[in-house]
Amino acid sequence: xxxxxxxxxxxxxxxxxxxxxxxxxxxxxxxxxxxxxxxxxxxxxxxxxxxxxxxxxxxxxxxxxxxxxxxxxxxxxxxxxxxxxxxxxxxxxxxxxxxxxxxxxxxxxxxxxxxxxxxxxxxxxxxxxxxxxxxxxxxxxxxxx
Length: 145
Fold this sequence. Notes:
Blueprint: H1 4-8, E1 15-19, E2 22-26, E3 29-30, E4 36-40, H2 52-73, E5 77-81, E6 91-97, E7 101-104, E8 107-110, E9 124-125, H3 128-144
């Protein structure tokens, strides 16, 4: 099952993994390299409306995200932002944080907000080829770990 938030962020093209009730997607706008969106597939527009199983699945999804992103960009901190102002389905923007820049496939992304809050307006807008390559890389790392 998909929802409008998943579709907005490029599902199924941008999909990295599905863990229980959650789908991990590459964020097409990369404020930092490796930025993701973690979307719950349950029909819920409030965090408190999620099922107990979705909360249990969230732990596994977060553990997988942190493992994969640590190996990919060696982040120093990681931010989980639950903004839900435009897209009402329960979801988090996952922003790995680091000093300096990281690069992949010719795309270089600095963490413009470091060491403060993330600058969501900065970074790289991935074209289709870059999005496909990043999703494939992170998916391969997810499966291998």
